[in-house]
Amino acid sequence: MTTSFPMNGGDAVYSYSKNSQIQREVLDGAKEMMKEAIIKNLDIKNMFTYSSNTFNIIELGCSIGPNTFNSMQHIVQVVKEKCHDNNLEFQVFFNDHVNNDFNTLFRSLPIDRSYYACGVPGSFHGRLFPSRSIHFAHSSCAIHWLSKVPKELLDEKTLAWNKGLIHYVGASSIVVNAYVAQFEKDMEMFFNARAEEIVPGGMMVILSPFSGYRYLNFFGSTLMDLVNEGMLDESLVDSFNVPVYFPSIEDMTKVVEKNNFFSIERIELTYPKSKLVDEADAKTLIINLTAVLQQVFINHFGNEITEETFTRTILKSEEISAWMKINYEKACQLFVALKRK
Q: With bands split at pLDDT 50, 70 and 90, how would you rate the model's confidence at 41?
């Protein structure tokens, strides 16, 4: 069983739909590489040996928009440009966990879209579609979410007990290795599933943030403030770990090669321009992270402590901005283009 970590739904102040600028920057920064990868590598001739004139696209970890619609339209346009086939129809499957806010997603669907749309609830760490039914898979800012917190981190009697921290950044090598091991297990399931679903000659493009999540430590420091003030039991902080791991080129290459059903057509770190980072706009950055992380905190700490934690962290914006200027870390993301053998 995988654990679900949905983004904030609806369209309120801290909703993901209103606070996903960072994720949009990731997508915009990869558009040209995505286009080049599709034009160069998508094997249109062979893939339709296994299907009709319907081109099936899956968006893995779609959340609630609006970024996912921008990505899907871009992919459709590029495939049309490559195919020159006016009879080709497009079906987009929007996938996320069952408790994702699909209502908001579908209420926001562009009226002028050039594809048919449907939702597919379920974890992308397992099978979602019939064999050889998908031509193109896309995932942005999603695969770094682990299926669960590494079990070693939940036992206070082990050396992996991550005391005083909520993530592997700044933690011991034992903690880091536990995160790496969980990522590799999850990606083994992920690639085995996609290998069954994607037709030979089909493609998968993955985008993942690679840097910037040292900012998680600010949420951790706020939690420790609450501990020191007697508002929170320290053991609750020690047993809490954010279930995300940001893979390097080496990490991703290893899991792809182990699967052996995909060839790596392009893999590199890119450096998209980030207004939030460049301008040290800590307040907007923290609000963006709130939209992404709030449900994870609520699941562990409850509503009251979570609200206090995020409110206090946002109030630290000036302090965080000053830290950002001194410890400037250029926005960085991992781009991976794969082809089904």
A: confident
